[in-house]
């Protein structure tokens, strides 16, 4: 096992992610921030859940191209525009909708969700980066 996930006692319980990842590989894979661009150029979905799902699909594409899977991921960083804590249900609905398809185990690898004013393109609500170890 290249990546071991831990949730030490005393850290917040019942989070949708693990608190710690310990990797023992020799190659790092960094997937640049991925947004909900569609593979055939269709319009970007307008709702948060759909954008989360598609951004994760695009992260998965990058991982696979490098010979990795979500089980190799040691860190996710998520940037969300116009974030409010009331959106966590919609955010997690997007994660859960795509998780089986892309092999993303829940809870997710260690992750940060960072609220930002805007991303590089109008209408983009979420951008997701991944770091994996092979």
Automatic annotation (TrEMBL):
InterPro entries: RutC-like_sf, YjgF/YER057c/UK114. Transmembrane segments: none annotated. It holds the Pfam family Ribonuc_L-PSP. SUPFAM superfamilies: YjgF-like (SSF55298). This is Enamine deaminase RidA (YjgF/YER057c/UK114 family).
């Amino acid at each position: 096992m290249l990546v071991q996930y831990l949730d030490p006692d005393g850290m917040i319980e019942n989070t949708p992610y693990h608190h710690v990842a310990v990797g023992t590989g020799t190659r790092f894979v960094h997937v640049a921030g991925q947004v909900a661009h569609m593979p055939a150029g269709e319009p970007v979905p307008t709702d948060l859940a759909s954008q989360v799902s598609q951004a994760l699909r695009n992260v998965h594409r990058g991982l696979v191209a490098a010979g990795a899977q979500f089980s190799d991921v040691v860190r996710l960083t998520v940037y969300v525009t116009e974030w409010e804590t009331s959106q966590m249900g919609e955010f997690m609905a997007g994660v859960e909708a795509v998780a089986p398809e892309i092999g993303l185990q829940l809870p997710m690898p260690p992750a940060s969700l960072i609220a930002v004013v805007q991303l590089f393109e109008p209408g983009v609500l979420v951008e997701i980066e991944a770091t994996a170890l092979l």
